[in-house]
Amino acid sequence: MQKVDESQARGRGPRARRLLVWWAALMMALAGVAAGCASRPKPAEGDYAGQAKYAYEEAMDRFESSDYLEALKRFNFVRTKFFYSKYAALASLRIGDVYFDQDKMPEAIEAYRRFVQSHPTHPDVPYARYRSGLAYYEQLPGDWFFMPPAYEKDLASTEEAEKELQRFLELHPNSQYAEDAAEKLKTVRQRLADHEFYVATFYIKREEPRAAARRLNELVNRFPGLGFDQEALFLLGKAYLQLSDVGKAVETWGSLIERFPEHSLALKADSYMRAHGLTQTLEAQRRAEAARLDAQKVSVEALGDGDEAGEVDTEALEALPDPEEIPTRLEMPSLGSP
Q: Domain residues for 79?
């Protein structure tokens, strides 16, 4: 005899049970609102502060029961009707929360910004700034197996999330929300770094070294320590060689070798430079830089001793190597892929 599922015997499958749970939760929430309203005494007719508080708490009841449309209407009522009470500012802030909970992030961001602009000294300003950054963060492109990776998509909201979270941390480093904001900022910056590397390699594949160099420079300078340093420096040096800008190539690879001497790409760059006599160029550049710094130091010391402004130690300047000693443009063979 076939066994019948007990829930089916009662005529209630999984979907029916979920609906019952949802309905029960809704009824409990509405009952809570009704109980709250019933137990909350109405203020006297002329009690402005009491009426403002009552109206705000009524709006909060609707918000907490997810009756967003009614909550929004009531918060707006508090904001305009009781403009001179403290509840007007709180209602403005809660409007942002209503939109946020509805996943209406642009509206939430606008509400939070309006709150900060209207109440710049309010103690909840850090919260509003944090939530504004969080609203941008919630709009980050997602990774779905049937969609292009996030780093291939438009990252306008990701850029804004970085700005908002960075500004929040600069202004409120000791906030209770700072730790979470810092974690989210790290995620945002990783997304942006992934995108920069993706675009740079796109230009490399299309044999557009100038465009690739711009992107790689951005990656190296703006997003250090996010997993791209070695490869970005190597590819940047390669791009400069393809542009016949040997001076910048040597400088870039010199940085790679100095910072990551044991990395395979640093060893490859060093081997190439030695094979083509570029280590001498690197050494000449370093001597020139050291001499330039010495000349600046001597000049500053001379000014401190009372010399006229603008005078430079000529002996120190003569110690600088001839610019022609440092080749800047040569025809170089192309490198293979890293």
A: 48-122
